[in-house]
């Protein structure tokens, strides 16, 4: 077994891990009760899924140019998914979307006018 | 530890936390609804960040960890408003966020100095907006016809 085959196998594992993460995020989108939970769990898990697929593809076809491209893609993907989640959650709060019933404390509500 | 090592140790620590949080959230999403351990809350966390880049990085990293989400922050009062998915009590989440912030600030600053935070919870009151600060599109009761004239109000 040469190094090529090992890298190929590892790449496949990462790609399937990424697919699994994205599927779990999609299930979470249906099962979680409110906007904030969805944004915090799903937004970033989907980011991780895409990052994992990119990393897997990098392992399957490794070169210096691809390494740089993959690094840029992963960092940009994680950053944008995080900033997007924050923007969605914040705009939901500013538009008076109430957190789900199970949310036991809400200290941000103290800063709001009644 | 000297500075470059603090950066590397932060990166490894964050990668570990990130993967653990992912497993945690994945397990909870796949659990039957009755046994879900979700316990969400929005908590005001006192923070020690000072510069804009520190605020940006800490809030992005908190959001990037699945299960925690920065809703907004108050630089004036030094507070991060964090929505957590598994919050047993206030102190647990505050400790978790502050540990991340301590490690981040030690990695970002060559001389971290004293990372002190206000221990008492600051009182954040809603502020009244001055009349003059309102934009035209905020003013209710102004009809199309009245604003059509183009006179300065």
TrEMBL record, chain A:
<keyword id="KW-1133">Transmembrane helix</keyword>
<keyword id="KW-0472">Membrane</keyword>
<feature type="transmembrane region" description="Helical">
    <location>
        <begin position="6"/>
        <end position="30"/>
    </location>
</feature>
<dbReference type="Pfam" id="PF03334">
    <property type="entry name" value="PhaG_MnhG_YufB"/>
</dbReference>
<dbReference type="GO" id="GO:0015385">
    <property type="term" value="F:sodium:proton antiporter activity"/>
</dbReference>
<dbReference type="InterPro" id="IPR005133">
    <property type="entry name" value="PhaG_MnhG_YufB"/>
</dbReference>
<feature type="transmembrane region" description="Helical">
    <location>
        <begin position="42"/>
        <end position="60"/>
    </location>
</feature>
<comment type="similarity">
    <text>Belongs to the CPA3 antiporters (TC 2.A.63) subunit G family.</text>
</comment>
<keyword id="KW-0812">Transmembrane</keyword>
<protein>
    <recommendedName>
        <fullName>Cation:proton antiporter</fullName>
    </recommendedName>
</protein>
<feature type="transmembrane region" description="Helical">
    <location>
        <begin position="66"/>
        <end position="89"/>
    </location>
</feature>
TrEMBL record, chain B:
<dbReference type="Pfam" id="PF01899">
    <property type="entry name" value="MNHE"/>
</dbReference>
<protein>
    <recommendedName>
        <fullName>Multicomponent Na+:H+ antiporter subunit E</fullName>
    </recommendedName>
</protein>
<comment type="similarity">
    <text>Belongs to the CPA3 antiporters (TC 2.A.63) subunit E family.</text>
</comment>
<keyword id="KW-0472">Membrane</keyword>
<feature type="region of interest" description="Disordered">
    <location>
        <begin position="114"/>
        <end position="153"/>
    </location>
</feature>
<keyword id="KW-1003">Cell membrane</keyword>
<dbReference type="InterPro" id="IPR002758">
    <property type="entry name" value="Cation_antiport_E"/>
</dbReference>
<dbReference type="GO" id="GO:0008324">
    <property type="term" value="F:monoatomic cation transmembrane transporter activity"/>
</dbReference>
<keyword id="KW-1133">Transmembrane helix</keyword>
<keyword id="KW-0812">Transmembrane</keyword>
<dbReference type="GO" id="GO:0005886">
    <property type="term" value="C:plasma membrane"/>
</dbReference>
